[in-house]
Amino acid sequence: MTPPDGTLVAQLVQEMRGRISARTLGPGTRLPSIRAQAAARGVSKTTVVEAYDRLAAEGVVESRRGSGFYVAGHPPPFSLAATGPKLDREVDPLWVSRQSLETPDDALKPGCGWLPSSWMPEASLRRALRVQARADVAALTDYGNPLGLAPLREHLARRLGGFGVPAVPGQILLVDSGTQAVDLLCRFLLEPGVAVLVVVRCYFKFRALLRAHRARVVSVPYTPTGPDIAAFAQVLEEQKPRLYITNCGVHNPTGASLSPVTAHRVLKLAEQHQLTIIEDDIFADFEAEPSPRLAAFDGLERVVQAGSFSKTVSASLRCGYIAARADWIEGLTDLKIASSFSSGRLSAELLLTVLQDGFYRKHVEALRAKLAGAMSQANARLRAVGLTPWVIPRAGMYLWCELPAGLDAAEIARHALEEGIVLAPGNVFSPAQTAERFLRFNVAQCTDPRIFQMLDSTISRAARGAAQSSAPHARKTPLAIRPGAPM
């Protein structure tokens, strides 16, 4: 918990609260005396008294007359974050998300997964809010239909048809987000211990969700045109996964796009091995020319599609969807009711108003142009400081870049955090932990020159450290490197 101010009292309160939450000070433990604590900290006794009084007011410690202060008998809930420094978790996918979400809005976040707020359709959102403010009270207060708002499902059916995906409104279930869509599908399709296939470099939330569902994750290499087909076939034969989770359109994190040939081969193998596919289409509107959708080729028989509009409309409007076989929608709807009862009707109404606004098409076209310019600029700047993009994406906001030989992305990320910059190290996206030399950059969040100044100085320092480490009696450099690491 962030201290309410920067005083010595607040700092001491935060430290003691953290030690108690982490169980390094257990229930009933006597705290150091006021005199001893003041001497050890080099602060006044008044400072310690005020800190202990604050902790007592929170119920974290208790005062015993004539004896001192003790940790209360019922400690607060265990806090994993309190067990170690934040900088030690930068390769943890959940912690990367927290860093991006918890840092101030004006912080530098080239590792985050969303566009700057100034790129979003603010005027359309405000118009939609005004429209809903005049709506019937039921739209503002009542639960919605379990399937979700009917006019929005009709709109989504027409939209999916534009991508070649044959869906009727009865095949579409609204949920609270794209993440909830994948979570519901995993609940519906999986049992603990079942094998699930992902690519070697995949969206880190897939990993986190599968871990939560106790699935057995298996992976295959990814190429600039999709999964490695030979490896895909081998894993299906040997591991017999029940499910394959992937992006369609623009791949996260690499920015690559699926080719028609690879899509055809994936579907043939899926049919042969009774494999179900979840296709996450959250980046659909970033493509001017849509790349192949497995759901379009398959007709929603073996492929389920999920998505939302958090990347192009608003992350605050929690509204996503599942498009699936009609006979699956019934069971998914029951599961939705059991886990969340109903999706947000107000969010659905607001989203529909924005999507039907004539400005949305122009907004998306402007986004594509901005992203193309940012992609070109970020590519040039990253190359200039020694990073090499794995592929130049045809659309989207991600560049997957390789560091010079000998550098570890986790160490680069740790150094960046010290300077208030959130990066996304490659192993966050790698179930096999084989992407230690890669970083994912969100080009829309890479417009500040301080990002590249930090990278340049850090990489240069690491290069000097490599030279020193090869010399006799070289001292260890502040940035960990791996001299002579293979490409």
Q: If you had to describe this structure to a student in words, what would you say it looks like?
A:
With 487 residues, the chain is α/β, with parallel strands linked by helices. It has 3 domains: 72 residues, Arc Repressor Mutant, subunit A (Orthogonal Bundle), CATH 1.10.10.10; 137 residues, Aspartate Aminotransferase, domain 1 (Alpha-Beta Complex); 236 residues, Type I PLP-dependent aspartate aminotransferase-like (Major domain) (Aspartate Aminotransferase, domain 2), CATH 3.40.640.10. Helix 2 crosses helix 3, helix 5 packs across helix 14 and helix 8 crosses helix 13. The longest helix is centred in the C-terminal third of the chain and has 26 residues. The chain is globular. The two termini are 41 Å apart. 43% of the residues are buried. The N terminus and C terminus are likely disordered.
Question: What is the spatial order of strands in the main beta sheet?
Answer: 3-11-10-9-8-4-5
CATH homologous superfamily classification of the largest domain? Type I PLP-dependent aspartate aminotransferase-like (Major domain)
CATH class category label of the largest domain:
Alpha Beta
Oligomer: single chain
Query: What count of helical segments does DSSP give?
Result: 17
Q: How many beta-strand elements? A: 15
- Poorly predicted residue ranges: 1-5, 78-88, 474-487
Shape: globular
Which structural class should the secondary elements be placed in?
alpha/beta
* Largest sheet descriptor: 7 strands, mixed
- CATH-defined topology of the largest domain: Aspartate Aminotransferase, domain 2
Strand content: 5-15%
Distance between the first and last residues' Cα: 41 Å
User: What is the percent of helical residues?
Assistant: 40-55%
Radius of gyration equals: 26 Å
Number of domains: 3
